[in-house]
Amino acid sequence: MAPTVYVINGPNLNLLGTREPATYGRATLADVETLCREAGDRHGFEIVFRQSNHEGDLVSWIQEAGAEGAAGIVLNAAAYTHTSVALLDAVAAIAVPVIEVHISNVHAREPFRHVSYVARAAKGVICGLGPQGYALAIAGLAGLAVKGS
Ligand code: CA2
Questions:
Q1: In the chain, where does DSSP find H-type helix?
Q2: Of 5, 34, 79, 127, which cross-links 45 as Cys (Cβ 3.0–4.6 Å)?
């Protein structure tokens, strides 16, 4: 069976494409899922794609990916990125590489978005490149899997 990459999305990302197009573009979360599955096919990954508005769901899915020995996690924790020690602890507790992704350039926005608890334990961070950041993160995980680093 192909190695698995979890793509985990946090609160309000279910609204993508319906509001705030100047910040988040017009792609919907379903479009992002398609893009991730295409990237998964290119790199030989099975994609598990999830979204929740609840912090505990995100923690449980990170633990699930760790327990299953996933090849990686692409994590857009949305607003919880900037607040959640629970997510930081979950990411730090697993041996699976986590790439933090943001659609917008959080560093060009309000100061509270410049802080990421998750980034402290993430392997890498991609932001500001729109939905293609997800595909780039999946390509990055493929590179890590080859190099074993
Ligand atoms: O840029 C990103 O991907 C963010 O993770 C998106 C979060 C935000 O809190 C982070 O600072 C950066 C917000 C997700 C909300 O998404 C919406 C999409 C359309 C309309 C309303 C909200």
A1: 21-24, 29-43, 55-67, 85-92, 132-147
A2: 5
